[in-house]
Amino acid sequence: MYACWSVKGGSGTTVFACSLALALSERHGSATIIDLNGDVSAVLGMAEPTGRGVRDWLADPVRVSQDLSSLRVTATSRLHLIPAGSPAMFDEASLLDLAAAVTDNHTVIDFGSTRPPDSLRDILRADWLVTRACYLALRRAARLSRRPGGVVLLREEGRALTTRDVQSVVGAPVVAEITVSDATARCVDAGLLATRLPKGLAEELSAVL
């Protein structure tokens, strides 16, 4: 499982998580993305799923693995989405149950601005903080009690902070640098990301697959 999260809203976590899941589905024939944040369907250009979602499953005191699989909806011919569902509260123990119930080896979890709990660290294939080279975001990242497994740096023109600066502040290696491009923004705005992953973005993602 790939966990994608940020310390600040607007960092691009959901767009990166969706792009990563799409790239995994193309490479391996299938993949799943789990939406804990609530924006994945919009980024993928899908109608908002109705009914129960992963947050409902997490809030249920009786969590059955098979019930999680039944929540999946089709995003593309190769990618499944487990939508967020209602804004129910969940705890660390329920996230451990979620990790145990996941059956797809190529699963991406969009945690949004919620940091995965320490207890998940040994279970995850990747624990990635998604951030821009932004002073405010890095200021928050510097206060983390636990360092992430790696950093996905979204590169923008005009930023003064370098990759080395980001690694020094966060205390973790930058595992990928993803260009914030007009092509990606246009795909998301037009609802076409799921059908037309920009070539440059796909090439940059290949570095972490």
Write a concise keyword list for the protein shown above.
209 residues; alpha/beta; eight-stranded mixed β-sheet; 9 helices; 8 strands; 34% helix
How would you describe this structure to a colleague?
- This protein has 209 residues and is an alpha/beta fold.
- It has a single domain (2-208), classed as Rossmann fold (3-Layer(aba) Sandwich).
- It contains nine helices and eight strands.
- The protein has helices at 13-28, 40-43, 54-59, 65-69, 92-101, 135-141, 163-170, 182-189, 199-205; strands spanning 2-5, 31-35, 73-74, 79-82, 107-112, 126-132, 150-155, 174-179.
- α7 links the parallel β7 and β8 (174-179).
- The relative contact order is 0.21.
- The model has no long low-confidence stretch (mean pLDDT 94).
Please render the helix and strand layout as text:
Blueprint: E1 2-5, H1 13-28, E2 31-35, H2 40-43, H3 54-59, H4 65-69, E3 73-74, E4 79-82, H5 92-101, E5 107-112, E6 126-132, H6 135-141, E7 150-155, H7 163-170, E8 174-179, H8 182-189, H9 199-205
Parallel strand pairs: 1-5, 1-6, 2-4, 2-5, 6-7, 7-8
Antiparallel strand pairs: 3-4
Number of helices: 9
CATH architectural grouping? 3-Layer(aba) Sandwich
The top level CATH class name: Alpha Beta
Give Rg in angstroms: 16 Å
Structural class: alpha/beta
- Name the helicity range: 25-40%
> Which fold name corresponds to the CATH topology?
Rossmann fold
Summarize this entry quickly.
This protein is an alpha/beta fold and 209 residues long. The protein contains 9 helices and 8 strands.
